[in-house]
Every structure is written in structure tokens, then in C-alpha cells.
């Protein structure tokens, strides 16, 4: 479904990714792991076209999207939730979902209801300004907004980062349910235990490349511990 080949990315002269290769199959949950600063966000931004890669190829459902605008990738079915759960803080929860709906090609109001079904805790908060939500609630809203675009693949950058433990569990359960409906998911996740529970496959970045890859059970390898140790 998503195929990344020889992807390279840089900030000016500082090269971050040196030929990253991986694939996510239909309905698969792929976890991207690696220490702070290895380039996980850079990889997702390159996959989404937020950052133009310096080399390599990104294909989504067989189409070469490497030079496509982010907005067009979203229309193709790539839903993106960037790191730091960004929302429009001045707008209410309902308005945040509405503006996202209006930006999509389909404009089917049912997409908002479906997104709220995935995160029922947002329903009593619909009239509240997003800026007044807790971090966990903002993260749920950020994911709900991506769902409004009706993605075929959801791309999540550390959705549990800095979020209180009981809400982490809710977000984990929501990801699990979305995965169970057949949605493909590309998830950057630092918690090994969470990755073990959720992932079908994983890659670990190190030195700008995929240093290790495998299925969920391979996450118990001692090599994984070494690659993730700080
Ligand atoms: N806009 C930028 N300009 C210059 N350098 C950047 C920029 N964004 C990231 N970097 C650098 O690129 C490298 C990779 O950063 P990136 O944010 O992709 O890492 P990450 O794996 O997502 O880290 P984290 O786990 O902290 O989120 C780091 O060395 C970082 O300092
Ligand atoms: Mg990051």
C-alpha cells in the first residue's frame, strides 16, 4: 500500500535520512522506532511531502506520489497526524472537525460522526475551544481530524508522547480499533510495550537508515534493546 524506496532527506547540508526502504501492506500496522533525533519525524514529513526528499521514491497504492503536494496525498487517502497534536486552538472541537471536512474533497458529514465514534470523549467537548483541552484530548482531536479526511492509511507521529497514562490507554485502544477495521497505520512510537501490543511489523531507524526490521515478536530481540537504549 505504501512503498518507500531509497528515501533521503536533509536540512540544508545536514543530511538526516540515507536511503530508507520499507513497505506497509494493506491493513498493516507498521511501527517506526528509534532514539530521539534519529529522523522519525523527518521520515514521516518526507512520506507526506511536508519536506521534499533529496532522493528516493514514495508510492501509495501503486501511484508515485514523491512530488505530489501534501494536500493531494491527503485526498488520495494518506491521513497525517503530526507530532505535537496540532489543532486550531481558537476554534471549538466541532469547528476543528468542520474546517477539516470542508478542506476534504468528499464533504460527507457522516465522516465527522464516524470520527467522533472513534473518540466518544470528544462529544461532550464539541463546543469547547481546542486550546482549552488537555494534551490527551487535543491528541484525540488531532487524530479525529485526520479521520474526517477518510484515510486509507493513518500516519501518526508519537500520539502518546507527553500524555497522561490513562489517556495513553484510550489512544492505544482507539488505534487498535481503527486497525481492526482494516485501516493501515504507520505509527511512530517510542514505548516498546505499546509497540509490542499494536504492531504487525516494525522498523528501527539508526544512522539515517533502517537498522533493524521485523515482526512484532522480533521486538524482543536483544538487538532492539541496544538500538533503542539511550
Ligand atoms: N527543521 C529542521 N531544521 C534543521 N534540522 C532539523 C529540523 N528538524 C529536525 N532537524 C534535525 O534532524 C534530525 C532528525 O530530527 P527528527 O525530528 O526527524 O527526529 P525524531 O526521530 O523525530 O526525534 P524525536 O524522537 O525527538 O521526535 C535531528 O538531528 C534534528 O535536530
Ligand atoms: Mg519526532
UniProtKB/TrEMBL annotation:
Q: Which InterPro entries match?
A: AAA+_ATPase, ABC_transporter-like_ATP-bd, ABC_transptr_urea_ATP-bd_UrtE, BCAA_Transport_ATP-bd_LivF, P-loop_NTPase
> What organism is the protein native to?
Actinocorallia aurantiaca
ABC transporter domain span:
2-230
Entries under SMART domains matching the protein: AAA (SM00382)
Q: Does the keyword Heme apply?
A: no
Q: Which UniProt keywords apply?
A: Amino-acid transport, ATP-binding, Nucleotide-binding, Transport
Superkingdom classification of source: Bacteria
Q: What is this protein called?
A: Urea ABC transporter ATP-binding subunit UrtE
Molecular function as annotated in GO: ATP binding
Which Gene3D superfamilies does the annotation name? Answer: P-loop containing nucleotide triphosphate hydrolases
The cross-references to CDD domains, in alphabetical order and at most eight, read: ABC_TM1139_LivF_branched
Give the family this protein belongs to, as stated in its UniProt record.
Answer: Belongs to the ABC transporter superfamily.
Amino acid at each position: 500500500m505504501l512503498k518507500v524506496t531509497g528515501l533521503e532527506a536533509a536540512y540544508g547540508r545536514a543530511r538526516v535520512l540515507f536511503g530508507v526502504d520499507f513497505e506497509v501492506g494493506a491493513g498493516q500496522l507498521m511501527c517506526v522506532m528509534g532514539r530521539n533525533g534519529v529522523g522519525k519525524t523527518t521520515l514521516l514529513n518526507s512520506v507526506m511531502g511536508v519536506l521534499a526528499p533529496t532522493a528516493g521514491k514514495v508510492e501509495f497504492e501503486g501511484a508515485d506520489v514523491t512530488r505530489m503536494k501534501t494536500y493531494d496525498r491527503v485526498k488520495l487517502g494518506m491521513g497525517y497526524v503530526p507530532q505535537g497534536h496540532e489543532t486550531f486552538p481558537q476554534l471549538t472541537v466541532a469547528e476543528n472537525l468542520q474546517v477539516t471536512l470542508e478542506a476534504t474533497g468528499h464533504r460527507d458529514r457522516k465522516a465527522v460522526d464516524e470520527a467522533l465514534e472513534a473518540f466518544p470523549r470528544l462529544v461532550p467537548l464539541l463546543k469547547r475551544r481546542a486550546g482549552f483541552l488537555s494534551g490527551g484530548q487535543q491528541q484525540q482531536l488531532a487524530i479525529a481530524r485526520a479521520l474526517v479526511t477518510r484515510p486509507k492509511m493513518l500516519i501518526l507521529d508519537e500520539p502518546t508522547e507527553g500524555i497522561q497514562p490513562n489517556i495513553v490507554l484510550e489512544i492505544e485502544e482507539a488505534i487498535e480499533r481503527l486497525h481492526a477495521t482494516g485501516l493501515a497505520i504507520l505509527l511512530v512510537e517510542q514505548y516498546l510495550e505499546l509497540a509490542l501490543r499494536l504492531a504487525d511489523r516494525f522498523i528501527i531507524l539508526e544512522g539515517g537508515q533502517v537498522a533493524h526490521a521485523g515482526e512484532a515478536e522480533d521486538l524482543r530481540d536483544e538487538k532492539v534493546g541496544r538500538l533503542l537504549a539511550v
